[in-house]
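As practice, study what follows.
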Amino acid sequence: MENRNNRDRDGGGKPRHYTQPKVDKMEMVFGLRPILEALHAGKTMEKIYLLKGTKHSISQEITELAKEAQIPISLVPVEKLDQLTRKNHQGAVGYLSAISYSPLDEIVASIFEKGKDPLLLVLDRITDVRNFGAIARNAECMGVDAIVIPSRGAAQINADALKTSAGALSLIPVCRETNLKDTLQFLRQSGIRVVACTEKAEDNLTDTAVDLTGPVAVLMGSEEDGISPEYLKRADVRVKIPMVGQVQSLNVSVASGIILYEALRQRQAQ
């Protein structure tokens, strides 16, 4: 659902069975060899910054391993690296992820094997970490099986995201995909309907024809400009949340809570 870059603050109690992890910030790894060793050890990394123009063999190996693990890499000038750390970075700085990402194909297969209808949430370029944390909290409360995000252009899952999610990010799988266009195609080929929540839709969420039962992936758009046109083309259904006020836009975390609640309501009514 499109919005105007508002933030939904954490405002409630945490799940009783969850203890909030003590995370101040993402752990930094700097230096070519330490980053390479982290990748070989299977550490999940949020992002890697490499010195632009370097042709070091270790840098090339880091690039290859990162691509295999779908870890975003940015080639940057030395000034950017110096801003990240004053220590001897050797042209390489990386951040370890606060969570471990899950393979989407395995998640989907597992849900079907259990005889369940998947309910997935696909996020197109949600960049605000507090929005993302609030969305994750909504998703976990409403029974979403997994959250899907792009490897580039998405909020970093850091301490703020963890805190705002109130523990949900430790309970719900998150899948990081390189190409959302291919991901949406994979979901459709797997028998999962893609339902786009967008102000550009003609059908209201409250219309009786809008069916959110069965295998469904709800697609939500970015804070700035909503769902990308190339992704909207791949949606099976487009719906909008009816509104009567003058603003005519909702924060994306609020919009996600509304449509996911409707999905839960319909499924429980079956």
Observations:
- The chain is about 35% helix and 20% strand.
